[in-house]
Amino acid sequence: MAAPSTRYHAALTAASAAETSAQQAVARTLRLRMILMDELRRMQETLDASKRKLGESLLGRVDLGAVGAVARYCGDTAGRGRELVGRLAQLERELAGGRVKLNEAVRRRRSLELLAEQELRARRRARERSEEAALDDLSATRFFQERLSGRRGVLAGAPA
Fold first, then answer.
1. Which interval of the chain is the signal sequence (predicted)?
2. Which helix (H) or strand (E) holds 61?
3. Which of 15, 47, 89, 127 allows an S-S link to 109, with CB 3.0 to 4.6 Å?
4. How far apart are CA 26 and CA 11, in angstroms?
């Protein structure tokens, strides 16, 4: 980031804060999405294991109570899975919006940084031109003083 400019410092600070806030919002959404996806994956693994066990138990004597319990569990889990999928879809929309906000915040901060850097370069160029003008003026003054002193026969800076 460019050195603070009196003109852009406050705007740059605000833009950086907005960018940080947008980054945090995206990170929170990504974390929540990861948690929900892990839960959905665990639910699927549990369902697969339950169905496998149920299939194995159907080889001999069938316990209809156990079959009913597994069916209820699968139904409940499927309902919870649908809820999670709906919540994940909502999080994906939030994530897309958060990324757009983050990109806008980054673009704004970068543009303000460029403006601040341009202002600093302009100030530096103006200062250098001013110093060059002062040196030119000093050189011209010294030259004319030496010329005037030379006409009188006295060197500039030499004892008379």
1. none
2. none
3. 15
4. 22
